[in-house]
Amino acid sequence: MKPSLLGMTLPELEQAAVDCSLKPFVGRQLADWMYSKRVGSWDGMRNISNAAKQALSEKYELGTAAPVGMAESSDGTRKYLFEPGIEAVMIPDAERKTLCVSSQVGCKMGCRFCMTGRQGWHGNLSAAAILNQFLSIEGASDLTNAVFMGMGEPLDNYREVSRAIDVLTSGWGFGWSPKRITLSTVGVIPELRKYLDESKCHLAVSLHNPIPGERLQFMPVQKAWPLEDVVDLVRKYDFSGQRRVSFEYTMFAGWNDDKAHADALVRLLRGLECRVNLIRFHKIPDFPYDSSPEAVMEAFRERLNSNGIVCTIRSSRGEDILAACGLLAGQCGRRNTGKTDE
């Protein structure tokens, strides 16, 4: 298989041109066509000579690939399926169009309440496969934000994720502001430190329970990288300016939704400039808990707000097409129907 030009940095594209006996400026032209103009075919690159395109195509492929399936929710959310079993979700909200990006096929983290984690891990995505999710969906040019909250743990594939973010935020690439990008992690501490040092993008930490022993029941990562250590690391960085940190908290009835858990969360996060996002749990097979009732979620939110922790309840989007949090499983179908898109 030929290496992909998609995902290469500007210096790498320039070197690819030189390796094809072309001038380095051809690499800059490639970056402009692929990233700025979002052209996914050789024919569309009008200021590159046919001879140059022929030389490049003999050694490289562009790396774009169309989705093989799409499902649309009643709320307008769209889920796209790419080979091999990669899902990306586009969430429209007034003027915003947010792409929920996948970074792995499956996941190693094994969170019991997550359908992606139940798959196990089947491979890391290359920077090309990550960026292809931004380029090959309908209306890709209208995207305003991205969240690395799809399939996989982004920091378990940090090399390729960081390369993709570099392309997204560089002037020679997509030219996005880092403020448009959020990366979500369960807390892979070594790579989290690198991310916080190297990136100005936002951070979201999957917390879900502030009591260590209880968190370990559902999140094996608690043993390797305890939540307390993750929060201690986050406290060393400045989130009082443009970069933000949030903590994701899925609500399970009778497990993590009472006053004791709210108070433990306040103690854990007190003094940290952050936000807590409460998430409704979306029921999955063979899992004993349901989502907390709306009134319980509202009381939990108010207890945190009254204690100085900014807390909101996140709207659930795309549940009917298995696109909501924790439901991505490499199937572009709908809940309870068995229907898939051809």
Q: What does this protein structure show overall?
A:
- It is a single chain.
- The protein has 342 residues and is an alpha/beta fold.
- Helix content is 32%, strand content 18%.
- It has 12 helices and 12 strands.
- It has helices at 10-19, 25-36, 50-59, 115-119, 127-135, 158-169, 189-198, 212-218, 221-224, 227-234, 259-269, 294-306; strands spanning 69-72, 78-82, 86-93, 96-100, 104-106, 121-124, 145-148, 181-185, 202-206, 245-251, 275-280, 310-313.
- It has a 10-stranded mixed sheet, covered by helices on one side. The chain has a two-stranded antiparallel sheet with strand order 5-6.
- Strand 11, helix 12 (294-306) and strand 12 form a beta-alpha-beta unit.
- Helix 1 (10-19) crosses helix 2, helix 5 crosses helix 6 and helix 11 packs parallel to helix 12 (294-306).
- The longest helix is centred in the C-terminal third of the chain and has 13 residues, at 294-306.
- The protein is elongated, with a radius of gyration of 21 Å.
- It starts with 9 loop residues before the first helix and ends in a 29-residue tail after the last strand.
Features:
alpha/beta; two-stranded antiparallel ribbon; 342 residues; disordered C terminus; 18% strand; ten-stranded mixed beta sheet
Mean pLDDT across all amino acids: 91
- Describe the main β-sheet briefly: 10 strands, mixed
- Reading the helices and strands in chain order gives HHHEEEEEHEHEHEHEHHHEHEHE
Termini gap: 27 Å
By secondary-structure content and strand pairing, the structural class works out as: alpha/beta
Q: Helix share of residues?
A: 25-40%
Over all CA atoms, what is the radius of gyration? 21 Å
Strand order within the widest beta sheet: 1-2-3-4-7-8-9-10-11-12
- DSSP summary: helix tally: 12
Basic shape: elongated
Uncertain spans: 334-342
The number of distinct β-strands equals 12
